[in-house]
Design goal:
two-stranded parallel sheet, 2 strands, little secondary structure
């Protein structure tokens, strides 16, 4: 719960300990973790291009974080 609130506006690396899947939804449905749980879009969804991401855009390194 608290980790989701803390890191919801930050881009992750995809290699964080305990991270099962991570979808950036940046014009693809690929899981960036080693699990490779890629999503399959249904009914031709489109990505928004008129509402920019307003969170932190640099990759967050949580490799030293204890989960």
């Amino acid at each position: 719960g608290a980790d989701i609130s803390t890191y919801s506006n930050q881009v992750l690396a995809g290699t964080e300990t305990g991270l099962v899947s991570y979808w950036k939804f940046d014009n693809n449905y690929n899981d960036t973790t080693s699990g490779a749980h890629t999503l399959s879009p249904i009914n031709s969804p489109t990505f928004s291009t008129d509402i920019p991401f307003t969170g932190i855009t640099s990759v967050l390194d949580l490799t030293s974080k204890t989960w």
